[in-house]
Amino acid sequence: MVAQPHVVFIYDAPESCDGRCRGACDRYYDIEKAMKDERVALATRPFRMIRMNTTAAKLEPMFSKLKVSRSQVVFLNAVTGKVVPLSPSKAKKPSQLYASMRRAFSDFYGGKLDQLVRRHEHLLIEHDKMGRALMEVQQRQGRAQEGTLKDRLNRRALAIATRQKLVDTEIEELWRLRPKPHD
Fold this sequence. Notes:
single chain; alpha+beta; Glutaredoxin; 4-stranded mixed sheet; 7 helices; elongated
């Protein structure tokens, strides 16, 4: 298995927020919302995502130098052991979280995360277009009589399904990354 950089989401949200959590719920949900941003979600592919509560994080030796008392995001380089915390105020903004992910990606893989995310978005759009086209062809196949039109529709459906499989393969290949050499 190839090593990956880690994104650790340390949280302090109680099981149920009853208004007495003094902002902990707000920080937790703000960071949670930022992680669901489309660009951030796509950018998580080359990372190992870990959720950890503050109690467990305090016991973790690699976080011993951090002040772990509230919801925050921490980047961990699996090869060098470098730990980079992201302040909660930055972690709740998708643009800041994404910028930090770009830096962590560049440190670990040596490439540009933006190019991969844009290519993946393009492939997803293409995949969706083909899905809609395939659905239309299948609807027309149901209405078509046996004969030349039905054969053409069958060939078209096969071509679309084959292209969809190629796009799926291209997406998988896009994210097969190797870490850059670290000293």
